[in-house]
Amino acid sequence: MFVVHVYPVLRGTPLERLSYFSREAYARGSLIEIPIRKKIVTGIVARSEPVAHARGMVRTSDFAFAKLPPGIARHLCGELFVDAIEQVSAKGTGTPGALLASLLPQALLAEEIMLAPCEKRELGFEEQLLQRGRTERFDIYRTLAREAMARSSSLVVIVPTAQDVEALSLVLSTGLPESALVKLHAALPKKILRETMQKTARSAEPLLMVATPSFVWLTPPKTAAVVIEREASDHYHRDERPYADMRDIVRAYARTRGVTLICADSVLSIATRHSLEQGTVAEHQPLTHSIRTTPHTSLVDMREYKTNGRGEFIAVSRELAQVVKDIGHEQSRLFILSGRRGLASSVICGDCGLGILCKRCGASMTLHTAAGKKDTPTKFLCHHCRFFDDSEALCTACTSWNLKALGAGSELVEKQIRAITTLPVFRLDSDTAKTPKSAQKITHDFLSQPSIMVGTAQALAFLPERIPHSAVVAIDSLLSVPDYSIEEKLFGLITSLIERTEKSLLVQTRSPDQATIRDALGGRITEFHTRERAQREQFGFPPFAALVTIGRFGNRQTVTRDMALIMQRFSPFSPVLLPARLGKDRGTEAFISIPKKAWPHTELLAQVRSLPPSFRVQIRLS
Q1: Under 8 Å CB-to-CB from 473, ≥6 apart: which residues?
Q2: pTM (2 decimals)?
Q3: Which of 67, 472, 582, 590 has the most CB within a 10 Å radius?
């Protein structure tokens, strides 16, 4: 008989490790079916040991061990990946099982993948930084891939989204044998995904693997380097329990495997640049300190623009209208980046000032055309729960009909652009492009003729290396987001567009003196990083501290009572209490800042992990 220790693979589970009696021992990293409260769920084996070795633990246990039902173990991630998951779990709130459930698509848990054996050699690990423009980075990846394949080794490039996988695979495929390129993401058809995973696991030939973080465990045994491309992207953060940062998992796995890790982006994250200042990482190549700016850049102050004669928010300035006119004469192309989708970013009551909220979940409603079709009545759409409501609805607080749309979304920009040009106008956002394939078609149509495309940040992954003209509209709404990293995201969006623009870039803003916008237009990376690091150090934000957030949402009386207990319980850590909102629920969040050198803080981490699921707990380290 054996005692088998298993991590239940469940999203948001507080269960860390369960132990069972078994007639057979299972290898670390195997997937097995385990009973939990009369249910059968998937678990991943942490270790197995003979009962004789665990006799003391069995005798002193407060509960009787259950027996594992007869079953066949499936092989998937391998034991080294479990090592990496345990390392990440030790520094955050997520249990190893919850991290695995967040990382691995549910369909993968039913697969059987026999990985080639890999040695654990942490001493070979080195983290390097690459801060270069897109085109230059991609050339470097091709060179790295060719050099690796010449030594019979592989190169793995991890990207944040399925869209990035498709776009980057297309760019890197030039000059490579078709069989050498592997792309992996959860949006692939199930049959193709299964065949690709089996091919990757069994291949004796060197590969260039482009994948989302969910597939980093398929890294071939002989790999020259793992690259985290678009390292500063916030898409690596999972916005669901256990709120994991996928970059941490990739980093831990590269360390466990002893593989060189390269963090790469046009503008690296503040946290990663801070690591260079601390001397814990090295430069792959000397970092660039500025970005090549567009030949003609202009900044338009939108504060003089209010609404037009129909009461509609003005999204297109005179300057942008002139650019559109010039594009028509030139028979060229223009891409317009919008901060949000929809007709208007928010709607308020003109009499009482209350925002229009979703009747189902309570989130802010956005004005759209019905079903996203042109020339149809407008509707309110909740981006949180997808609930539609009639735009003729009255204010729920004062029953006024005087509802006013504020801000501009991609639909409104498209509508106003169509009114001033005869060129084809396309829109690429999550309303018009539900899949990478549909986004690629819209992009192809835009690039195949003189035209204009309006898009959100989603569209940037599908744009080619260079486009003639670009513009930024309705980006100011980002600055109102209560997130300490929001200026870093804004800087990244603008600089990403600058990289792709050949001739002219126009930026519309109601904050023309905002330092982040001016630094981005000037391509001043070092100045922005220096100022942003200083502010974060001053206020105790990552990467200088671990930021622990404990939130409670729902009934006001319950929230007040529970957060009073939180303030008392965590008083030694000086929490700061602030009002917050999650969907329809209002609540309160307590923020605790712990100096980075003191993290992981054993006592605080233990207390946070012991909180019931009714509390929303996040730990940000970067």
Answers
A1: 315, 316, 320, 336, 337, 338, 339, 408, 413, 508
A2: 0.83
A3: 472
